[in-house]
Design a protein that fits this description.
This protein is mostly helical. The protein has three domains: 104 residues, Cytochrome c-like domain (Cytochrome Bc1 Complex, Chain D, domain 2, Orthogonal Bundle), CATH 1.10.760.10; 96 residues, Cytochrome c-like domain (Cytochrome Bc1 Complex, Chain D, domain 2); 100 residues, Cytochrome Bc1 Complex, Chain D, domain 2. It is elongated and about 95 Å long. The structure holds heme C (3 copies). One heme C binds next to helix 4, helix 10, helix 11 and helix 12.
């Protein structure tokens, strides 16, 4: 039956071509196709960005894009709270690294060079009510073919893409001042502060412009930004910081936010940055944190018991044997957790448990340690470590979350 398919097909074509109308259609298509091929081969198709699109081409491309995004984003589950200030802060930080150069931002004009692109990246604030959050998620995660709109560099980090969507949702009402506070941190207080001006004003010490970039998200002294969006780096072990930067740069530790930053650093600069942050004073976190990060009743006590004893029944090891607190010096690659932001700790534990966080050569230790943790145990452990004071001395606090 199948073997005779080509024969039957040919017979059917032969029969059809004997009808004048169908013969006409076939010949027209053939001529049009040959014509298109001839025009293309002769190099006459306009690919010049300077000539833009015809209105009909532009309409058709946007129509296809809108339909594709709408259909392909169906069934995407949204996080509970897209107005979470920590998500908006994290999204703003990345927007400044990876989006502002094409799309502009409140108080920041689009560059004249970008305006010469076809299609031209739109200024986003007025366009946001045309897209549902799941559609924005799709666009930021996958990017758009045949335009310059890039895909998210770490496809497994949906949590980071949602942070950008949370920021985009907040964009229509955002004042230039608020954008600067979110994206630039304390540097926003200097008039004219931006990555470029920070770079120019700090030509004297080659590390300073890099530190200015890190400070946007990790704070002036690596203390974080007062919400769990960014980890504190202050007082962390230098070997762990260096190994983490290398892991981001190579993609071993997936993060669409840190990877582009780390990939641009030379190894010697990474070493200097790791030493610099290791020397900064660690801050006791829960004292400075806002109400939303206060742990649930009993969480710290439950977390303490689990961190010290582990659970033989659930095959959860004792955390303190590697992370302290204890009198013994631990492996220099085991990070300190005391006083780290609880939301950051909980996020990393979820990523380890899902097998989505790589890292140093020792990261596998954490995959087996976290595989059987429940969501409540994750929160308890995060609360316990966050509440541990890394140091008793009073230190300068991070940003006041109420102002973000
Ligand atoms: C190299 C330039 C470039 C960068 C960087 C870039 N985009 Fe785009 N973006 C574009 C272009 C071009 C389009 C498509 C414009 C069109 O065809 O309508 C687009 C489209 C979009 C759209 C759809 C807008 C609409 O209403 O049609 C959103 C949303 C968007 N980008 C968000 C982002 C975010 C968020 C980032 C950073 C993570 C980003 N873009 C980075 C160039 C860029
Ligand atoms: C746009 C915001 C942003 C900037 C700028 C930034 N970081 Fe980060 N950084 C993050 C986020 C978000 C994470 C957590 C990522 C994750 O989930 O793995 C992080 C994580 C890290 C970690 C891992 C910490 C840990 O405890 O495992 C190190 C180390 C680090 N950053 C160093 C730096 C350095 C050094 C710079 C400057 C060169 C810098 N970062 C610039 C946002 C930023
Ligand atoms: C055998 C040693 C070991 C044990 C046991 C262990 N960890 Fe870890 N942990 C590590 C190592 C090593 C890393 C760094 C992984 C990497 O990035 O390469 C780490 C990383 C982490 C991080 C991420 C820190 C950061 O700054 O990003 C958290 C959070 C964490 N561990 C919590 C725990 C908890 C909670 C337990 C107990 C359930 C635990 N660990 C048990 C070795 C261990």
């Amino acid at each position: 039956m199948l073997r005779r398919l080509p024969e039957r097909l040919l017979a059917w074509v032969g029969r059809s071509l004997r009808r004048p109308v169908l013969l006409g259609v076939a010949l027209t298509l053939l001529v049009l196709g040959a014509g298109a091929l001839a025009v293309t081969s002769a190099g006459l198709v306009s690919i010049a960005a300077s000539s833009g699109h015809w209105p009909v081409t532009s309409w058709f491309l946007h129509y296809s894009m809108r339909r594709a995004v709408s259909t392909q984003s169906l069934g995407t589950e949204e996080p509970d709270d897209l107005t979470d200030p920590a998500l908006v802060l994290k999204g703003a930080g990345h927007y400044e690294t990876g989006c502002v150069m094409c799309h502009g931002a409140p108080g920041r004009n689009q560059s004249v060079i970008v305006e010469q692109m076809t299609p031209r990246p739109p200024y986003l604030a007025p366009r946001m009510d045309e897209w549902a959050p799941r559609e924005l998620f799709w666009i930021v995660r996958h990017g758009i073919k045949f335009t310059a709109m890039p895909a998210w560099p770490a496809q497994q980090r949906d949590d980071e893409v949602w942070a950008v969507v949370a920021f985009l949702n907040a964009l229509p009402d955002m004042s230039p001042q608020r954008y600067r506070r979110l994206a630039l941190g304390k540097a926003a207080q200097n008039p004219g502060a931006s990555e470029t001006s920070a770079r120019l004003s700090a030509m004297s010490d080659p590390l300073e412009p890099v530190l200015a970039t890190c400070a946007r998200c990790h704070g002036e002294q690596g203390e974080g930004r007062g919400l769990g969006a960014y980890p504190s780096l202050a007082g962390q072990k230098p070997a762990y910081l260096l190994a983490s930067l290398r892991a981001y740069a190579s993609g071993e530790r997936a993060s669409g936010i840190m990877q582009p930053i780390a990939a641009g650093l030379e190894d010697e600069t990474m070493r200097q940055l790791a030493d610099h942050y290791a020397e900064q004073p660690a801050v006791a976190r829960l004292v400075a944190a806002n109400g939303s990060m206060k742990p649930a009743n009993g969480a710290i006590a439950r977390g303490r018991v689990l961190a010290i004893r582990g659970s033989r029944e659930h095959k959860i090891p004792s955390c303190v044997q590697c992370h302290g607190p204890s009198e013994i010096e631990h492996n220099r690659m085991y990070p300190l957790l005391a006083g780290q932001y609880p939301d950051y700790l909980a996020l990393q534990l979820r990523l380890f448990a899902a097998g989505e966080r790589g890292g140093t050569d020792y990261a596998d230790l954490m995959h087996s340690a976290t595989r059987r943790l429940t969501e409540q145990q994750i929160r308890d452990l995060a609360a316990f470590y966050a509440a541990l004071a890394p140091t008793d001395e009073p230190q300068p606090g991070p940003d006041n979350p109420a102002e973000l």
